[in-house]
Protein 1
Amino acid sequence: MQTIAEILEAAKAAGSIGAAGAAWQAAEDGTGLEAVRHRMHQTLAVMRDSIKDGLNPSLRSVSGKVGGQAALMNTAAQLPRFGMLSKACAYALAVAESNACMGKIVAAPTAGSCGILPGVLFAAQEEHGYGDDALVDALFCAAAIGRVIALQATISGAEGGCQAECGAAAGMAAAALCQLYGGASEQAAHACAFALMNSLGLVCDPVHGLVEIPCVYRNVGGAAQAMAAAQLAISGVPCPIPCDEMILTMKDIGDAMPQSLRETGDGGCAACPSMCGRG
């Protein structure tokens, strides 16, 4: 399965993108479906722990630039006027901060975008009561989508900008959330396409070369993008551009992006005077 179209075809027989992804992985590994699902449950457990670790209010990165913000956001998310979006954003930030502070995370698909998928899925679980098996199914959906993005384009910020990291993660999370909500496989593909569309051109500009600023905050934005994209698709709104075309468009934009905006530290946020000691 190297294209979204091929994934959708496989999902017709399997019942969902997640089921098709799990079956493909089991066949690829030769270990059986039970074994690959067990491994994905272990992955889910690491994601859960990384949220817990990242919500520690005393957490600080070596540079001191990030840490503790997720705890503040999570406290605010408990107020009655906030809902699932606030939780997803707080959890996404928590995982990203945990990564910046050398904690154990799951690259989903990269370390720089590690908070988006778990943030969205665990917020949905807390809000709606989904079981871990349902989240594992959603993770297989995300994995299948992410594999296609990696094969057809890139998931490297140095190669394609942050659209290839946080954009890809948002697309994976949008598709996973759509499946979790009971959407059709085609709707999950539309959700991914919308998330990618809304992330096109996002540059990779880490300050001082650290996966901290603006990286951790882009995980928050990516979680919001994923939820909005899933909402569009699950409402019955189709993306006017097929997901496979959107992935290739992201690649074209990444190829055209100046080197200064692809993880060199020479442009974007990294070049702001306040970040370079000139402010």
Note: The mean pLDDT is 97.
Protein 2
Amino acid sequence: MVYFNSVPIKMAEGTTTIKRSRARELALCAVFAALMGAGGLISIPVSPVPFTLQTFFLYLSILVLKRGAALSQAIYIAMGLAGLPIFSRGMGGYAVLIGPTGGFIIGFLLSALIAGAYLSAPWGRRSPLLALGIAMAIVFGFGGMWLGFWLGLDFYAAYLGVLPFIPGDVAKAALAFAAFKKIRM
């Protein structure tokens, strides 16, 4: 017999984990949405797209929440669209989505949805690093595509524009993975 929040829970023989409660999942989604906002405020201005800590929190949310990461990103985007200054450089409102960083913001949601679903699938549970690679590819794919459209660049020039961000994101993904290994929720 295992006790969870002072309530006895009968577990199947041979199992050692307890499924998270829905309330805890929702609280973690809200925390990661807030962390995404804080990560947007911590930025190094590089025009037109700054270096931020948002992708670190995105990658960590995918590892911790799996499918729930999409909800955390949806909350983050909804807060920003409502006008809260939580997008990069302290911006908010719907105009950010049609600006140069809009593709990255949409990429956050799609990468959380796809990489989180991958990690939740039985075949994806053993390869969190691949899930982070998938998430990174989606963020940079959508971000580069939209940035190129916004600046009027061709495909090649647009992706040369996001190339400087990739080493930093590989480092952020590695740090997120190391943090996840330490907290293992």
Note: The radius of gyration is 18 Å.
Protein 3
Amino acid sequence: MKAISLDTRHGMLLHLLFAGTLALFLCIFPLKVMATDVDDLFSRGNRAYAEGKYDEALTLYKAAVEKDGFSASLLYNLANAYYQKKDVGLAILNYERALYLDPGNPDIQANLDLSKKEFGLTPEPSTLWKRVFNILNLDKWTWLGSLALAAFCFFFLIRCVTPKTIPRPLFRTIAGALLLVFLVSGTMVTTQYMNMNYGVITGDDTALRVSPFASASSSARIKDGEIVRIAKAYKDFILVKCSAGKSGWIAKKAVEPVIPSQDWSKSAT
């Protein structure tokens, strides 16, 4: 077998290096172009908003969402534009979505409360428990709980294999703190899951019907922008529970889920 010369090896290495660099460049460049396009749409939307061209701003913000998906800042600006147009339901909806992605954000919370007050809706009271709950969103609470459990298992394993490595009082303190974090995170995750089945009314003076049929009589009316909990769905209607204790069936098109991926075709608790 003929041996490969040193120069040939260097040449092959250079070709491989060049090919790899080119492939990496081709992979990264479209992403940079896409990010630039989205940033440009967002910036143009902000300029249109500053000039009072709210319809144009909404069009640009929606285009940015379609290209790059949801983000807290984009939803926040989208909500501000709807607020300026006095579109109650869509303003509240996008503030709620922005707050879900960035819980505890004071600007989003302040604008959400202001919108509810101006449009005659009752803001939820801000309790200490709710402020703690809103420190993190569902994903971050899940990660925190998982890390706390993993750390507890790690320290427990070390304690079992080499008991003298970690003194018992120190181990008890660390283990207790990690278990406390895990329990708090688990409680927050459970509560977040329970709060996933809610939406915002986006239709004016929506009828609350006694059964899931268009011919059914109306028992009450729901304001645009009101938050409702979803009980179950039947064909083109959804059974909702309002904050005032009222419940009934409304048309699916009259409500938008705060979490866009929420599937209401199945019954929900």
Note: Confidence is low (pLDDT under 50) at residues 12-22, 28-36, 264-269.
Protein 4
Amino acid sequence: MTTTLTAADAADAAPATPAGETTAKQRRRRGPTTGTPVGGVGASILLWGYAVLALAPLVIMVLNSFRTNADFITNPLGLPTSPTVAAYEEAWTVGSFGTYFANSLAVTAGAVAISTAVSTMAAYGLARSRARIFRWLESLFLSGLMLPIHLAILPVFFLFDGIGLIDSRLGLALMYAAAGVPFSIFVLTTFFRQLPEELEEAAVLDGASAWQTFTKIMVPMVRPALATVAVFRFVPIWNDFLYPLVLLRSESNYTLPVGLTNFFGENATNYSALFAGLVITTIPLILLFLVATKQIVAGLTAGMSK
């Protein structure tokens, strides 16, 4: 005789489990709650404390840029009582920060664009090639990471003097672009090697040319690396003082670091304009980090959702 066990009978026959034990098992399966901070409350307090200490100089700089010199004399450590943008107008026009800003933007953006474009193509070729000579070429490129850029200041000066690129923003941008190639190739080659070769084979089967495969399939997949390279090259070029000081002669070609130093010498007691100049110099870097962070997160999470 066959006995049929229904779902109700199976439930009755199952051993009883305490409610507390069941709840504990469910919590272990679900993992920790999302509201618990990683590292505990102490780590969160330390991180927030560090954030406050790091942002405090920037906040003080911005607040002081809206004060007047009279306000500085009467209350050096106070807050702006009557906020004004007169210091920004003076720094932008009288201090020629508009010209310095345009020069820095042209030199930095041009150098980063040239360096990234050349390095992306070179890194893709080095990552996909099997010939031994390309391994030697990669080692040659990476050897440029061992020498600081400022050690070549004298050879670069004599080279530019011989070919007529002294006091030229184009020459300065080309020098920065060449100096950034080793680091860019180092980062991009690693990313390209992590991409499966089946993507290129599928593109060839679909009729795509080598250039189309590179520009439309491979380059979009290394957006995090491109954003990283752009940020790490933009910041040192934007803040560099030595090469513009040596290679540029006329004040109309000065970049922001050199122009800011020149402005400091002429307006040592004009504190509000000095703080305004510092804010003008810092704003592009902050905006770049915000934009680059979004690009990196978007590139890393691309294709994860179904």
Note: Residues 66 and 86 are 8 Å apart (CA to CA).
